[in-house]
Amino acid sequence: MKSKKKIVLAYSGGLDTSIILKWLQENYRAEIIAYTADIGQEIDRKKIIKNAKKLGVKKIIIKNLKDTFVKDYIYPMIRGHAIYEGVYLLGTSIARPLIAKDQIRVAKKFKAYAVSHGSTGKGNDQVRFELAYHYFGPKIKIIAPWRIWKLKSRTDLINYAKKHGIPIPKDKKGASPFSVDDNLFHTSTEGKVLENPKNSAPEFIFQRTASPEKAPNKSSFITIGFKKGDPITINGKKLAPSKLLKKLNIIAGKNGIGRVDLVENRFIGIKSRGVYETPGGTLLINAHRAIESVTLDKKTMHKKDEIMPKYAELIYNGYWYSKARFKLQKIIDQKRNKVNGSVKLKLYKGNITIISRQTKSAAYSLKKVSFEENKTFNKSNIERFIKFHKKKLKS
C-alpha cells in the first residue's frame, strides 16, 4: 500500500494552527506532523499534544531550542545593536528563521513533501518563514493557508472551529483574544482596540512588564559580565544563555522596563500598530553599548552605528540567512574579542542608568582623558587638526 504524503506544520496548539491542521487534512489528504519549536514562549505541552491528538495527529514534535535561540540568534543581533525604526528590538523577526530552519530539518528527516505555517496574508512572518524555508529546503513545497483558503475573517475561523470541535480561547475579559506572539526575548500584542492608533493600550494586555507606576519604589542594581561581546554572567554568576535572559526578563519586567508602543512599516507595505515587551533585551542592548564604549575604538563603533539600520532592516524583512546579513555580521563581529568586562545598571520605574563600566581594555585611557596636566596627549597637534578641517569645509 502506498504511504501517505506528509506535511510538517508549525503548530502552536492554539486556535489558528489547529484550524490550519484540520484544513490541511481535509484539503491535502496528507499525514500532518505537528511541529512546535520551544523558544521560551508560554508553552503547554500537554495542551499541544492533546489538541493535536484530538485532530488525529500521530507524530507530535516539541523541540527545545531555547539556548540555540539566545546564543546563535539573539546574541549576534545584540552585538549589532539592531533596532528597527528607532524602537523595535526585533523579537518576532529573529525567532522565525530558527523555527523555519528546524522545521525543514524535521521535514527532511521524515521525508515530508511540504511544510506549512500559520502566518496571515498581511503580515511579515509569511516572508520570514518562507525565505528561510527556501534557504534550507528549496525543493520542499510551501503551503500558506491564509493566502489560499476561503476563510476570510475571524468570524469564518470561529465558525470553522465550532464545526470541527476545536476549542476557542478567551482573553482576560472573556472575549476573543488579541493576536499575541511570545518567546524568550519578547511578547508582542496586536489587533482589536490596538488597531486604531488613537486608542491607548489597555493595561491588562501586558504580560511580562509591570507598569512603571506600579514598579517598586526602590531601585534595583544588576551587573552584567561580557566575554567576547556576549553576556555570560549576572552579578558574577555564570549562566547558560536561556537562563541568563530569563533572569534578566524577570528583573527588568518587575521594574517596568522594556515596553514599546509603535506603528511600524511592514515589509509588505502596510503600517501596523503593536505593543511589544522586551525587558531583558532592553537591558542587554544598553549594557552592550556601555561595555563597547570602553573597549572599542571610535572607528569600529561608528562603523557599527552606520550599518545598524540596514542590518536591522534585513532581519525585519526575513533576510537572516542572506549574504548581505552574513557580510554585515562579519563587520559587527570583527573586534568582538575585545569586548570584555562588566556593566552595572540601576533600574528604577522604567528607567535604566549606567552606574559603572569595568574592563581591562586599554581603549579608554585615564591618563589621556584626565583634566590633570600630563604628557600623554599632545595638545599642540590640535591647532593643525582644526586647520585641516577648516579647509575641508569648502571641499
Features of the shown structure:
Argininosuccinate synthetase, chain A, domain 2, 13 helices, alpha/beta, 20% strand, 395 residues, Rossmann fold
Give structural notes:
By secondary structure, the protein is of the alpha/beta class. The chain has two domains: 6-66 and 94-177, Rossmann fold, CATH 3.40.50; 182-358, Argininosuccinate synthetase, chain A, domain 2. Helices cover 39% and strands 20% of the residues. The protein has 13 helices and 14 strands. It has a five-stranded parallel beta sheet, with helices on both faces. The protein has a five-stranded antiparallel beta sheet with strand order 10-9-8-13-14. It has a four-stranded antiparallel beta sheet with strand order 6-7-12-11, with no helix packed on it. The model has no long low-confidence stretch (mean pLDDT 93).
Mean pLDDT: 93
The CATH class assignment of the largest domain is: Alpha Beta
Q: Number of DSSP helices?
A: 13
Low-confidence stretches: none
Taking strands numbered 1, 2, ... along the chain, how are they ordered across the largest sheet? 3-2-1-4-5
**How many structural domains in the coordinates?**
2
In whole angstroms, the N-to-C terminal distance is 79 Å
